[in-house]
Design a protein that fits this description.
With 433 residues, the chain is of the alpha/beta class. The protein has helices at 16-28, 51-61, 76-87, 105-115, 130-140, 159-167, 190-202, 226-229, 264-280, 285-295, 300-322, 359-368, 374-386, 412-431; strands at 35-36, 99-102, 121-126, 146-150, 156-157, 172-178, 206-210, 235-240, 253-258, 328-329, 338-343, 388-389, 391-392, 402-406. The protein has 14 helices and 14 strands.
């Protein structure tokens, strides 16, 4: 090429959650049955969308306006509906103009980081969700800046670590919270959130809160929305329907701006985000039209409560099975539908294996494990031996060694079978060398 095509930051883009699928599909060619635990798609795990939700979407398809463009910021009545829901929380107040729709939160996240000056950094949690950490790293042309979530303290953030990194790195302009957290399933306590707001106020930062799982809480937990605790600090909440309805194929998410009038730089960012969407024209109309119809239905709250109770039961089952392995640092989850399991220091080495009968699968796995992190090695052997596809936690911008699983299996007997097999595979792997 006459010129280099790829900008420097592009090499920071990675997404092991789907990269592992390539390896799993390669092994499928040799007859291996794959049990998918890599991605948070309830539909993949055979969740059946209720007939009444399907009927609402079907009826919308009969309306001619569904087939056209919508306003660039999003369908007006949907934004008014969502603004009213937020305002009922009694915290930061917004109007429909403070809401901007995107084709999924991946689109929203990428747009935010693309708008930031290259020297402006957003500090986020580690383990980090790849879409955020990769976008932040790509825009800054350098690895992401993170604060520590501590597996020895229920995955709560290390506030001293966060404070010091903010204090001594003047390039940090914002703090990212994912609440409930992906990949750990941790739900931020109110006192921790209040401390983060205090840090943001002291150093004149804004807060981004990814709330895609905000309504997915269980076993007595409560997830606070950014609008409830933000006070006068500028902030952006990122929300969507992919996990909550769930409708992951809708690719429908939105941002809510809070306190945009409190800081001119933050107001300029919000205005630039609005302008970027105008250039794109708009986000997809159908799912936006469905939001007030579904969320406003009298059956919706009961639907979401039932799903949360089912996820909470699965969380307890997984805790019952894996929580008894002494070589693991295990935390029960209370939000989202993931669990991150950590191997204790010194338990993994580069000689451990699992038996693989098929010579072609064995050869592929042995090729993949050369020179990789110890948790990648475990993940690849688990895939080749047991057919379970999980994600190594070191791929989530973390120095910890472990893996992430989902809590989405609808069939409880299958859930028990697979996670008992996972427990036995872990024991066998750790004893192999």
């Amino acid at each position: 090429m006459r010129k280099r095509l790829l900008k420097e930051g592009a090499k920071e883009l990675s997404y092991e959650i789907r990269e592992i699928v390539k390896k799993a599909n390669h092994l499928k060619k040799f007859g291996l049955d794959i049990y998918w635990e890599n991605i948070g798609d309830p539909i993949e795990k055979k969740f059946q969308v209720p007939a009444w939700i399907k009927q609402i979407v079907s009826d919308l398809l009969q309306k001619n306006r569904t087939w056209g463009y919508c306003p660039s910021k999003g369908v007006l009545e949907t934004r008014e509906f969502l603004a009213a829901r937020t305002n009922k929380l009694g915290g930061a107040q917004i109007t429909s103009d403070d809401i901007l729709f995107f084709n999924g939160l991946g689109d929203a996240i990428a747009t935010v980081y693309n708008m930031l000056d290259d020297s402006t950094r957003i500090i986020g949690p580690s383990p980090a969700y790849s879409t955020h950490s990769s976008a932040e790293a790509a825009h800054a042309h350098t690895p992401p800046i993170t604060y520590t979530l501590d597996p020895e303290n229920k995955w709560y953030p290390d506030l001293e670590d966060l404070y010091n990194k903010v204090k001594y790195n003047p390039s940090i302009a914002g703090i990212l919270i994912i609440n409930p957290d992906n990949p750990t399933g941790m739900v931020y306590p109110r006192e921790v959130l209040d401390s983060i707001v205090k840090i943001a106020r002291e150093f004149k930062l804004f807060i981004i809160s990814d709330e895609i799982y905000n309504k997915i809480v269980y076993n007595g937990a409560r997830a606070w929305a950014l609008a409830e605790y933000l006070q006068d600090v500028p902030g952006i909440a990122m929300k969507g329907i992919s996990k909550e309805f769930p409708w992951p194929g809708s690719r429908c998410g939105w941002m809510e701006y809070y306190n945009r009038d409190k800081d001119s730089e933050f107001e300029a960012l919000c205005r630039a985000l609005d302008n970027a969407k105008m250039i794109e024209v708009c986000s997809t109309t159908l799912p936006q039209l469905a939001i007030p119809e579904i969320m406003g239905d009298s059956r919706y709250e009961g639907h979401r409560q039932e799903l949360n109770e089912r996820i909470g039961r699965r969380s307890r089952i997984i805790a019952e099975i894996l929580g008894e392995v002494p070589e693991l640092t295990f935390n029960e989850t209370f939000g989202a539908f993931y669990n991150t399991i950590i191997f204790k220091p010194g338990t993994l080495n580069n000689n451990q294996t699992l038996p693989i009968a098929n010579p072609e699968i064995k050869a592929a796995v042995e090729g993949w494990v050369k020179g990789v992190n110890p948790d990648y090695r475990f993940v690849y052997f688990l895939l080749g031996s047991f057919g379970m596809c999980v994600v190594p936690i070191s791929s989530f911008c973390s120095q910890l060694q472990g893996f992430r699983v989902t809590l989405l299996e609808e069939d409880e007997s299958v859930l028990r079978e697979k996670f008992t097999g996972l427990r036995d595979a872990i024991r066998s792997y750790l004893k192999s060398a």
